[in-house]
Amino acid sequence: MRTRVTQVTGLPRFPHLRQDLAASLVLFLIAVPLGVGVAVASGVPAELGLITGIVGGIVAGLMPGSSLQVSGPAAGMTVLVFEAVDTYGLPALGVIVLAAGLLQLAMGALRLGRWFRAISVAVIEGMLAGIGLVIIAGQLYAAAGLEAPASGVDKILGLPGALQALPGNSGAPASFALGAGTVAVLVLWQRMPRLARAVPGALAAVLLATGVTAALSLPVATVEVQGLLDAVQPPRPDDFALLTNPGFLGTILAFALIASAESLFSAAAVDRLHDGPRTNYNQELMAQGTGNAVCGLLGALPMTAVIVRSSANVQAGARTKTSRVMHGVWLLLFAALLPGLLALVPLPALAGILVHAGWKLIPFRQLTALWLAHRGEALILVATAVSIVVINMFEGVLIGLALAVVKSAWQASHARLEVIDKGAGPVQVHLTGNATFLRLPRILETLESLPADRPVELDLSGVHHLDHACRTALENWAERHGTPVKVTGGGVRSAATTDPEQPVTPA
C-alpha cells in the first residue's frame, strides 16, 4: 500500500492533524514495549530506551531528511550496545553515542550519506541476521530467568544445557512459559479480527503477560524502575579519557557506521511505502547525528531509524512529520508521569518481544532468493552473520565488507581466454574482458601450455582493461616463448619490438 504524503512548508500548519494524531498514538503504543525491551536487552536502565525514543521523536522528528521515517532505540544495535557497556561501563555509553553522533554530523556535512547506499545489501542483511541470532539466543536465557553467557557462540552452544536445566530451577519453567506465550501472541496477533488488531501486537502481548503474572502471582522478575531523571547520566569529564583508547575509538566508529547504514537503508525501504517527498540522505544523516549527539549528552541509547515503527507510521495513515514528533511527546509524558507502570511489566515478556524481533531480522526469503540467483552474495550474507556470532559485531561487518570487495574485484576482473588450434599454422589465442592480476595465474597457465614450436597469434582487441601486472607478464611470456608471437591490440610488446602489430620474437 502506498500512501500520499503532503509536505508542510512555510508557516507551521497542521492540515492533517487528525490523521497524524491517530498515527502518533499507534507509534507511542508500539514504542513503549519495544523501547523498554531494547534497553533491558542492552543491559541499561529501562528508562534510557524511552529517552532515546523521546529524542528520536522530538529532535530528529523536527529535522529535515525523511518525511515519515521514525527514529528510536533499535534491536539492531542491542548486541553492540551490550558489548560496549560490558567492556567500558555504562558511564562511557554517553561518550560513545555523543562521539558517534558528531561523526554522523560530519559525514552528513561532507555529503557522504548517499555512499551508504553503495554498501552491499548482502552485508547489511548478514549483519541483521547475525544480530538476530545473537538476540534470540541471549533472550531465550532471559526468558527463563537465567544469566546468558558472554559470547555469541557460547550463547548458542549453551542453549541445550540451559533447556535441560529448566525443570531444576525454581521459577524458570513459569518464566520461560510466559516468554513463549508472549512470542505466540505476537505470531498469532495478525490473524486476529481487524478490530483487535487496532491494538499493536507488542502492546497486547505485554499487557496480557502482565495480567497473567499478576493474576497467578508468578515468580518472575519485572522491570526495575529508577525514574526518568535518575536514569539520565550525562558523560563526566573523566569518561572522555577513554578517547585515547584505540578499541574505544573503534567502538565509536562501529556505532556511527552501523547506525547510519541501518537508518539510510530503512529510509530507502520507507520511501517505497508512500508517494511523498523522497529522503534526502545527507540531511537524514545529519538528523540522525543530531539525535545521537543529544542522546549521548543524556547518557541514553543510540538512535537509529527503525523500519518497524516507520512502516507502522505509514500504515496508520500519517501524512506529515507531525506524527513522529507527537509520538515523542506522548513518550515524554508517559516517562515523566507514569513510570511506575513499567515496574509491573515481567522481563520474560520483554524477552519474548525481542526474540520475535530478532527472528524478523533474519532474512530467510532473501537468503533463498540469493542462493538461487547469486550464490556469491548468499555466501557473503552467511559469512557476515557467522562472523558476528563467532567474533563480534564490528569485526563481523568488516569481514563481510572485505568479502564483498573481493567478490566485486573478482567479478570486475572477469576475463575469457579462448585458444584455437587448427593443427597447422599459428595457434590463435583470444583474450577478452578485464585482464587483471586476479586472473593472471590462469592466463599464464594457459599460455605456457601452448606448444613452444608453433607460432602464436595473441589477440587482445577484446580486452577492456589490462592492468600493469598483466601487461608485464604477457610481455615477458612473449619474450620467453620459443617461436614468434604476434600480438594484436592491447599495446603489449616485448623488448624485441615496439610495434604491437609486428611479430614478437624471443630476445
TrEMBL record:
Q: What is its main location?
A: membrane
State the superkingdom. Bacteria
Question: Which stretches are transmembrane?
Answer: 21-41, 88-110, 122-142, 170-189, 201-220, 240-259, 329-359, 379-406
Enumerate the residue ranges of region (Disordered). 485-507
> Where does the UniProt annotation locate this protein?
Membrane
Q: Which residues belong to any copy of the SLC26A/SulP transporter domain?
A: 17-384
- Membrane topology of this protein: Multi-pass membrane protein
Keywords, alphabetical: Membrane, Transmembrane, Transmembrane helix
Protein name (database record): SulP family inorganic anion transporter
Species this protein is from: Streptomyces thermocarboxydovorans
User: Lineage, please?
Assistant: Bacteria, Bacillati, Actinomycetota, Actinomycetes, Kitasatosporales
